Amino acid sequence: MHGVRTGPAERTVTRSARPGGRGLEPLEGTVGAALDEGGRSLARARVESPRLTAELLLARVLEIDRVGVLTHPEAPLTERAAAEFGRLLRRAAEGEPLAYVTGRREFYGVPLEVTPDVLIPRPETEILVERALALAARATARFVDVGTGSGAIAISFAVFSPRSSGWATDVSRQALGVARRNAAAAGAAGRIAFAAGDLLGFFAERPAFDLVLANPPYISAPEAASLPRAVAAYEPAVALIAGDSGLEIFRRLIPQAATRLRPDGLLLLEVGMGQADPVAGLACAAGLRVEEIARDLQGIPRCVASRKLDL
Ligand SMILES: C[S@@+](CC[C@H](N)C(=O)[O-])C[C@H]1O[C@@H](n2cnc3c(N)ncnc32)[C@H](O)[C@@H]1O
Predict the structure, then answer these.
(1) Where are the domains of the chain?
(2) Closest Cα to residue 213, out of 310, 292, 133?
(3) What CATH number has the domain spanning 104-308?
């Protein structure tokens, strides 16, 4: 366990006497004591699920999983690990999202690095990947993920469709750096190429893709004013906001996708609340046939799938 005392060079935090203790109260300077104190400090800061958050932060510091932290409360903590845990606790207490504090988030079972340059992948976006895997007509799909951010959609699709290959694009070069590292870590780097640019502008206007996948920015500028602080203060605005109506990116992306999809190819778009109908309308106007609108776990229409007709 990195950070837990492993040898004479690492000093542990001083232990204090424990009144009458026989394993009930964790000793100061141990994993258990750090968790108790960390959980209490996060609770005072009104962080959601404070104990769980403290466990995940300490697991990150020690580079072990949460179960490892929970099963060894008696393990001594080095000064260095305790100090690092303190730094992470302070960031969480200030309201920074856990994924940015730990630098990690799992998406569709794939572990991803996340930095403040990328949107934290959301569970509802897994629906898009699930539908893409279910609806793709061929096992050797050529795909493009527009606005890839951390690479969540492109990488998870590639991992679960191991004979497919394609592209991931983003306007943010910093995001593309994160996505590249994530693709390499997932063993999918050889099947995903990366391009910086606006939507599908990098690609010629000819049918080259079986799947166009996108979770684009879709929050309107007026809505952005009421975003939770954890989102507005920490996540990149370019990943969230799409003009005055929230539909601006869809208006440009859908006709671009229609010209680049092969016959029978699919466009899958994540949409915000109340956007499924207007987005379906844009898809029809671009000559696509709306095939399905999938709902998220809250019953909100979340993913619009439309197919290019095979004329
Ligand atoms: C909502 S985030 C989605 C990130 C990732 N696909 C996911 O689902 O977690 C939108 C992404 O689109 C990118 N983006 C915004 N405007 C863009 C544009 N005009 N062309 C390409 N990418 C864009 C942002 O940088 C951001 O990474």
Answers:
(1) 1-95, 104-308
(2) 133
(3) 3.40.50.150
